[in-house]
Specification:
alpha/beta, five-stranded mixed beta sheet, 19 strands, 8% strand
């Protein structure tokens, strides 16, 4: 084990080797050392469901109608400005960090510009409230709210992203998408903003809204009104300025509310706190933050307003320990605040992120089992822009905050590298062992070179943040359209070896006429496993089919992108992403320094094992014919039980066992996808970059796919992320964690610049004591050395998960790592629970 001990890290709130427990389950009465934080936690935990709040939608609609005919981006800006000036605001009891999304805890606003019909339909069908279709993350709504939203439904018809997109899609794009057969799922950015970004906090801290406003005004003066391009730029800049002024007003409204509350407050301590909050809000409304408290409040307001504007998923919080450290250092040096006071602020900040919410349709909830605003990642650790390690007190204090609050958000990412200090490895390992599913770990030594290869500067790559579940992002300079789609490469292999038909189309398919009947096929005809004479024929068919479906997905994503630019520009966000104001270009239209679109490959292990099965049994050993193997899958393995057991046994080469035979075929399976995605142009500038992860979508992909060659039965999940296959019959990885690490790191993670992910699952017993901790650290170090990009951990034994599934009321606080995010186990769908239970439980 490397002992790169760091000597200049002062003692934070907790010692670096603090052990909170191993695989802890159940609610801890007082997890935080701060009574205030525990009180806020208790209050927030009592709010179990949200309410649909119509205010934002009604204000937006009123302004849109009033300003009809003006330049659209001006209309959007004026409407959002009115929202920030009129939506309700709140300051809760005890809290020090303030600001909400225009509604109280767990409630959520409505964003009609992305789609309103689906929400009204769910209201009318009872799909928002608690039911067998929505067992968690449910919403109530008043009759008055329903009437209000119904009254604006006609206005938005034909003017939403969803309704503009569908008419311009081809038949094949529709058939292959989430709307039909699910080769790729592109629905994420149809019903909400792209998000998956973090703002430029350094820019905000240096300039403040007042300084940014001056920059916008200077750019407007430079515009030549005889130049058509400058006329468009001028409209964009005017919209940016409108939103900048509204942002200041939004913050000043909180200052006024805090003052009003302080005048009525009887408790002298709380009165002083409210007065301080008012002063902080007045300072950061136009000026720049001077203290840690002012800076953390500025961060929260900025992200809150980005969310109010865009409804984006994964509005992330950047490298918190880096951009906040100068304020921390100054406060300590000048006696402005103590470490304990700043720790309390960090923990309050964490809970504020957790208490915000958004409305999703019941299908998305069933697939992802993920409530809240979703994806608010916060990054610590890693190297600085000068190449030196950036670990500091705040790195440790953020990890302590995770242990003290024990809530599902923010999604904490720790950046590691070859020279990460020993103390941070210990702190990270001990937090992983606690069993919250936090933090995830990223490898600077592979992520940074990959980002540079995709066009970022060395300094920007070194300063990357993690957004959402998995994706590396150039902090405050990138509009990456990360997580843009999920692409089932296992489905492509199915089509490649079956004349472009789905397996079930040979049996009883309810969509036979649609996708395969009367001479039609879902995909192009690339032949059949029954006819292929050599294994290279399989690979060629897979490659050809892959190119066809990647092109369909890319077309659909670019069409969605164009419509976002037309319908939903983001002038407030353009204030805070570098490049937009200087170029006079909205962030949605390519104003950022870096622009990408990142769709993910799903089913990597499944494809690797299927290719191995075909090559070994049909072509190398000739144990069976291609027709026999294909028929077994078409029959859902019924009547082929011996073959089914054999394909799922260790007699067949399987990915995840440090077996070159299977691992190299898995590598081909992934790289075939990457080569048909990487480098394609996006609609907002830049290029596509592939990702390799599934989050929980491997379950949804499985539900849309019949039985497959690697030993899956119909509608089982396909393999998750970069992990090995585990079917209902058996897991395919049987040689332990070192073998998995070796297999996964044989794949070229640099080909997947949008991110990769490996899920690990350990029993608490495997990680107990110093030996268990040190084994975990050694495994992480090995993964880093071998160029694995990203890992996440679940620490829970199978018996506990089964007990929680049987008696959910006894395990309401059991957090698990799904894939990319943590969630309460009892809130997951039964299919997703089973997938997590079925993951291989590792020991050393």
């Amino acid at each position: 084990m490397k002992n790169n001990r760091v000597s200049n890290i002062a003692s934070a709130v907790e010692p670096f080797d603090k052990v909170w427990g191993v695989g802890a389950v159940g609610k801890v009465t007082d997890p935080s050392p701060f009574p205030r934080i525990n009180a806020i936690l208790d209050d927030t935990q009592k709010t179990t469901n949200g309410e649909v709040i119509p205010d934002r939608a009604m204000i937006m609609t009123e302004v849109y109608k009033k300003l009809h005919g003006q330049p659209h981006i001006i209309v959007v800006a004026e409407a959002m400005a009115e929202v920030l000036r009129k939506i309700p605001i709140y300051i809760y009891e005890n809290e020090l960090v303030v600001g909400t999304l225009g509604c109280t805890k767990k409630n959520a606003s409505v964003f009609p510009e992305f789609g309103l019909n689906w929400l009204i339909d769910e209201m009318e069908q009872g799909l928002l409230g608690y039911s067998e279709n929505r067992t968690h993350d449910y919403f109530t709504h008043s009759e008055e709210t329903y009437k209000q939203l119904k009254s604006i439904e006609d206005y938005w018809k034909g003017n939403t992203v969803e309704e503009r997109l569908i008419p311009i899609l081809t038949d094949d794009e529709i058939k292959g998408s989430h709307m039909e057969k699910g080769v790729f799922l592109c629905n994420g950015y149809i019903f909400c903003g792209a998000g998956h970004l973090g703002v430029n906090y350094d820019r905000l801290f240096k300039m403040g809204y007042g300084g940014i406003a001056t920059e916008i005004q200077e750019q407007i003066k430079k515009c030549d009104q005889t130049n058509p391009d400058d006329i468009k730029k001028m409209n964009n800049l005017k919209a940016d300025l409108i939103m900048n002024e509204a942002a200041s007003d939004f913050i000043l409204r909180h200052a006024a509310l805090a003052k009003e509350m302080s005048e009525k407050e009887q408790d002298s301590n709380r009165k002083a706190e409210l007065e301080k909050i008012a002063g902080i809000c007045e300072q950061i409304a136009k000026g720049t933050p001077r203290t840690f408290y002012e800076a953390i409040q500025a961060v929260h307001f900025a992200n809150t307003m980005v969310e109010i504007e865009s409804n984006g998923h994964s509005i992330s919080y950047g490298r918190f320990d880096q951009y906040m450290y100068p304020f921390y250092e100054n406060d300590i040096k000048n006696g402005i605040a103590t470490r304990a006071e700043m720790q309390e602020l960090i923990e309050n900040f964490h809970i504020k992120i957790w208490d915000m919410n958004k409305i999703r349709d019941h299908i998305s909830i069933d697939i992802f089992s993920n409530g809240g605003i979703g994806g608010p990642a916060l990054t610590v650790g890693g190297i600085k822009t000068d190449g030196m390690d950036g670990t500091n007190d705040l790195t440790f204090m953020v990890l302590d905050a995770v242990a003290h609050t024990r809530v599902p958000t923010p999604w904490t990412a720790v950046r590691l590298h070859a020279n990460t200090p020993y103390e941070l490895k210990v702190k990270t390992a001990n937090l992983i062992r606690l069993g919250l599913g936090e933090p995830k770990i990223f490898n600077d030594d592979v992520t940074i070179p990959t980002m540079i290869a995709n066009g970022r500067s060395v300094e920007d790559a070194r300063n990357y943040q993690v957004v959402g579940c998995v994706e590396p992002d150039a902090t405050g300079k990138e509009y990456g359209w990360h997580d843009a789609a999920y692409f089932n490469i296992n489905k492509v292999l199915e089509l490649a070896i079956n004349h472009g038909h789905c397996m079930e189309c040979s049996n009883d398919c309810p969509r036979y006429e649609r996708c395969a009947g009367v001479g039609k096929s879902l995909g192009i005809d690339t032949g059949s496993l029954e006819e292929f004479e050599k294994f290279d024929d399989v690979l060629q068919a897979y490659d050809t089919q892959m190119e066809y479906w990647c092109n369909n997905m890319i077309a659909m994503l670019n069409k969605t992108d164009v419509i976002h630019q037309e319908i939903k520009p983001l002038p407030f966000l353009s204030n805070l992403i570098e490049g937009c104001i200087s170029s006079g270009t909205d962030v949605t239209a390519g104003g950022a320094i870096y622009n990408f679109t990142g769709p993910q490959a799903v089913g990597i292990g499944s494809v690797g094992d299927a290719l191995s099965t075909i090559k070994q049994l049909v072509f190398d050993e000739k144990k069976i014919t291609g027709k026999e193997l294909l028929t077994a899958a078409k029959d859902n393995w019924v009547g082929h039980e011996k073959l089914y057991a054999y394909v799922n046994s260790d007699q067949v080469h399987h990915y995840g066992n440090d077996d070159d035979y299977a691992d190299m075929l898995t590598k081909i399976g992934l790289e075939t996808y990457c080569k048909h995605v990487n480098g394609k142009p996006t609609a907002h500038g830049g290029h596509f970059q592939a990702g390799a992860y599934s989050v929980a979508v491997n379950v949804a992909c499985g539900l849309m796919q019949y039985a497959s060659i690697e030993g899956r039965k119909a509608y089982e999940p396909i393999s998750d992320c970069m992990g090995a296959t585990h079917t209902l019959c058996s897991p395919h990885d049987v040689k332990g964690p070192s073998a998995i690490a070796n297999s996964v790191t044989k794949l070229d993670h640099s080909q997947a610049g949008n991110g990769t992910l490996l899920n690990w699952k350990f029993s608490p017993a495997a990680l107990d004591g110093e030996v268990g901790r040190d084994n975990l650290i050694s495994l992480i170090e090995t993964f880093i050395q071998k160029k694995g990009m990203h890992s996440q951990f679940t620490v829970a034994d199978k018996e506990t998960l089964l007990a929680a599934q049987k008696n959910p009321a006894d395990y309401t606080d059991l957090l698990v790592r799904v894939a990319g995010y943590s969630a309460y186990f009892v809130e997951l769908s039964k299919e997703l629970q089973n997938d997590i239970i079925g993951r291989t439980e590792l020991s050393f």
